[in-house]
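Exercise 7.
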Amino acid sequence: MINLRLIINYRDSNMAQEKARKEKPRRSAKKKMSPQEINNFQNIKNKSQRFRIIKEMIKKNPPSLSQLMIEALADPCEEIREFIINFISQQPDLYGEKLLLTYLNKPPWYRKTAILKIIAHRQDETLVEAISELLNDPNVAVRCELAQTLGELATSLARQLLSSLTTDKNPYVRRTAEKALAKASTIRFTSPE
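Solution. The predicted structure, written as tokens, is:
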């Protein structure tokens, strides 16, 4: 004998769920962000919401948000940071070296590595001396990224700094510095003839 109550309850619960789905208000595709919402985006726990805000900021791209974009490099989500790094790397006029260097020594460590990646993408050889401050950074990831950045820049000062990193106390930093030094040593500049 089939239990009629179970069937009725099951059918009613499915109907209730279906009704709730239909009545759910739809989100508007493009919601305008207030300045307060943009400034507080770091307090948002949802990664996809933070990513949406970053993309909206990039789309608007007013110069007043350049500092906020650098602060967004402190986002714990690597995917968001990589997106910002790629954007900022292509905007040297809006995100100049002065702004980058302002945040270079500020925590968290992943903002430091992000700024080093931006410098490497831009091939900004004038910043080698400024980034040398990170030689004694306590974080291994920062020193490894510094070695990679110096390897990309490949100036004589960068090679000197890399040779000092080859004697770092951490084996990962030493190995990264050795690889970067080998790369920097093989880069040759030729003049057009």
